[in-house]
Amino acid sequence: MLAFDGASKRNRPNMQPGSLVYCRVVRAAKDLDTCVTCEGTSVEWSTGQSLTLPTVAPTHLAKKDWMTGLAIYGELTGGYVFKASIGLAKSLVQDECAVLESLGRAIPFELAVGVNGVVWLNSKSSQDTILVANAILNSEGLTPAQCEAMVAKRDRERVEDSNGGGVEVKMSRLPNAGLGLFATTTFNAGDVVCVYRGQVLAIADALKVADKSYLMRLGGGVYIDARTCIGVKARYINDCRSRGVHNVEFEKLPKLQKANVRATRYIHIGDEIYVDYGKWYWLPYNLSHPHDPIK
User: InterPro entries from the entry (predicted)?
Assistant: First the structure.
């Protein structure tokens, strides 16, 4: 059973199968159906055996009609959903959660955490969403000081990446290349255009990656994989396969777990950014496409 503040038989939310709902459990028993509610006020449920179970909502919640969009409980739309362990989920709903407090000081976001481990996250950009989700998942088992240090490091990286505001992602000029990266400001030779980051992997883990399209070897046994890091603009740089047209190069920094994208010559506004992937990138592709190799 699901109840909403201000709902009636004629005026109630139209929930579809699969809808994600943030609600409170008001009754859970082994031999009875579980009852939940989206009401933000005290409610009473009858067990059918002349027994009433009062359930009190958190005292800081004010009653809001479900139609206003201001109710604490209700359907969660948009955003990003991921799973956390039950232990991590319980720590996230505590009044004092180190990782959420640290993240909240750096990035604006909305979060709904279920004790079943389902987490809903919404922020102003996909880059912020990925950063917050990764920080939450990586915070399990860390001390408050370690959480604060981790968030500070990721926030510095976010600010550094946002300084790559001089580039934008749109359709590449190369045939069948998909998206590409373009300059929205001018760059001189030696300027850092943007930064290539990703999931940090050791050699053994890097060898297990099935799709190595975004895998970069930094050196010193360190690899980064930007395949799922859609907010990293450098991952959209294409290789035009022409040395005279390449205008950037990767400056690999294994100790910092990143690679700077540096301009090798003057780049005009509107120029597409091109880098040499190297022969070892194209060799596996050409072996698997003998009738259509990239030259």
Answer: Exosome_RNA_bind1/RRP40/RRP4, KH_dom_type_1, KH_dom_type_1_sf, NA-bd_OB-fold, RRP40_KH-I, SET_dom, SET_dom_sf
Residue whose tokens read 């232990």: 87
Q: For the chain, how many residues are written?
A: 295
The Cα–Cα gap between 204 and 253 comes to 20
Instruction: Give me 167's structure tokens.
Output: 């580039």
190-217 pLDDT tens trace? 999 999 988 899 999 999 988 888 999 9
Q: What is the CATH T-level fold of the domain 78-163, as seen in this structure?
A: Ribosomal Protein S8; Chain: A, domain 1 (3.30.1370)
Query: CA neighbours within 13 Å on the CB side: how many for 66?
Result: 23
> What's the pLDDT at 291?
67
CATH topology for 166-288?
A: Beta-clip-like (2.170.270)
**Fold (topology level) of 1-47+54-76:** OB fold (Dihydrolipoamide Acetyltransferase, E2P) (2.40.50)
Sheet containing strand 118-123, strands side by side: 80-83, 118-123, 109-113
